[in-house]
Amino acid sequence: QVQLVESGGGLVQAGGSLRLSCAASGRSFTSYAVGWFRQAPGKEREFVAVISRGGGTTNYADSVKGRFTISRDNAKNTVYLQMDSLKPDDTAVYYCAADRTSRSGTPRIPEDYDYWGQGAQVTVSS
User: How far is CA 58 from CA 40, 79, 86, in A?
Assistant: First the structure.
């Protein structure tokens, strides 16, 4: 079992940067792949990025590729999402999620994840 808490959301102007943190509690943090998802008003929850259990593999949605970077610091039980060159279309509630049961090392669908954080609002103004 793992509990996740996001932090670092806020308001930023287009072109700016923001770093989200996902702090995990519980045992076996390194056994979980951790992903980031986002949900904008009126839209479905969408995949953003994921990092594998060992941290050796990452995958990104095409919409954020080259702008966002996911990383993990297992010593701190924390996963980060560094967001650069932010656009108004990035505005959403961002959720981190942990997966241990999927056969995929880097799952991309919400149904594959077992635990979720409460969400962090990111607003990008033009």
Answer: 23, 12, 20
Give the separation between CA 15 and CA 26, rounded to whole angstroms. 36
Integer CA distances (angstroms), 115 to 2, 50, 67, 99, in order = 7, 14, 26, 7
pLDDT digits 0-9 by tens, 98-108: 998 888 889 99
Tokens describing residue 125: 């103004």
Q: Which two structure tokens, joined as six digits, stand for 102?
A: 């999927």
Q: Give dist(CA 20, CA 5) in Å, integer.
A: 10
Is residue 111 helix, strand or coil?
Answer: helix
- The predicted-structure confidence for 58-99, as pLDDT tens digits, reads as follows 999 999 999 999 999 989 999 999 999 999 999 999 999 999
